[in-house]
Design a protein that fits this description.
Elements: E1 2-5, E2 10-13, H1 14-31, H2 36-46, H3 50-74, H4 80-106, H5 110-142, E3 163-165, E4 170-172, H6 175-191, H7 196-205, H8 211-237, H9 242-263, H10 268-291
Antiparallel strand pairs: 1-2, 3-4
Helix pairs in contact: 1-2, 1-9, 2-3, 3-8, 3-9, 4-6, 4-8, 5-10, 6-7, 6-8, 7-8
Length: 305
């Protein structure tokens, strides 16, 4: 069944979009990460303009993160104080991201820029995960025990004006999570991702945050930051296609439940290896799209006929 997307200004097969949302949701449930960093590239592959794909993906991430955040909150896995600081930084970062996004739109380079950022980001994440997972699998094969990683101090954790974040198990300056939230807010606005793939490792390894609270606090931040970003996209760039986001959300909610059940019976390290390979495949496909010369170098639009 074809359906018209008013903002993207094209007709798509509704079943295909729901299936795409299902696939991304299932990957989210399987691998334990938000699917926002894959939703935008997959939409671009299908023919959705990158700017619309980014804004609509952020909308879908907002909806899909609510249930997860509520579940962690009920279990006491959310540091509300830390989350509030991250949200404050995220909102400021969203404002900065909106200025960058609008400037790129004005000079006509938004599509190419989004694609380039995704190629760099996905390659970096994919290679890092592949290297780390390969080392872990080798240790398991040889029977070696994994060494406990020591959390080292960072510039962020040494900032002045400390306060206590009890659920997070931290006594640090609120400037540290504010800066992290700001950077994630900029990336979320420009790329349409939830930011958890970046934020969770940073909070654990750079700030030393408790693992029991990091996922719930990250989801708490994602809900409010992406909601603000969706509003900014809708008002300023006018690239939020609510029909597209709704179709993605329907498939994503179902897929996440299926993926979570399947993941219970699969080894974690092999799942991470599969995710790393998937991320690199998407990055290569985006790079090919940037460099491959199309059959027709020019297109002609007839106006007023």
């Amino acid at each position: 069944m074809d359906i018209y997307l008013p903002i993207a200004e094209l007709s798509v097969n509704a079943a295909v979009i729901v299936a795409l949302g299902f696939a991304v949701g299932m990957m989210s449930g399987l691998f334990g990460v938000g699917g926002g960093f894959l939703t935008t590239p997959l939409l671009m592959f299908y023919g959705i303009p990158p700017a619309v794909a980014v804004a609509s993906s952020a909308t879908q991430v907002t909806g899909s993160s609510v249930s997860g955040a509520m579940a962690h909150f009920r279990r006491g896995g959310v540091d509300v104080k830390m989350g509030a600081v991250l949200v404050a930084g995220g909102v400021v970062g969203a404002g900065i991201g909106s200025v960058i996004f609008r400037a790129l739109q004005n000079i006509g380079q938004i599509d190419v820029t989004i694609t380039l950022i995704y190629v760099f980001f996905l390659t970096l994440v994919g290679v890092s995960m592949l290297v780390e997972t390969t080392r872990t699998l080798r240790r398991q094969a040889t029977g070696q025990k994994a060494k406990k990683s020591k959390r080292r101090g960072s510039i962020l954790s040494a900032l002045p004006g400390r306060m206590r974040f009890r659920a997070a198990g931290l006594y640090i300056s609120p400037l540290a999570p504010f800066i992290i939230g700001l950077l994630v807010g900029v990336l979320t606005f420009v790329m349409g991702i939830g930011g958890g793939l970046i934020m969770v490792p940073v909070l654990i390894y750079m700030l030393g945050m408790s693992v029991t609270a990091v996922v719930g606090t990250s989801l708490f931040q994602i809900v409010f930051t992406t909601a603000a970003i969706t509003l900014l996209h809708a008002v300023q760039s006018k690239t939020v296609d609510i029909v597209l986001a709704a179709l993605l959300l329907v498939g994503g909610v179902i897929g996440a439940q299926v993926g979570a059940r399947v993941a219970m019976n699969l080894p974690a390290e092999k799942l991470r290896m599969a995710l790393a390979i998937l991320v690199l495949v998407v990055a290569i496909r985006l790079l090919i799209g940037l460099t491959w010369q199309p059959e027709n170098l020019y297109s002609v639009d007839v106006v007023g006929m």
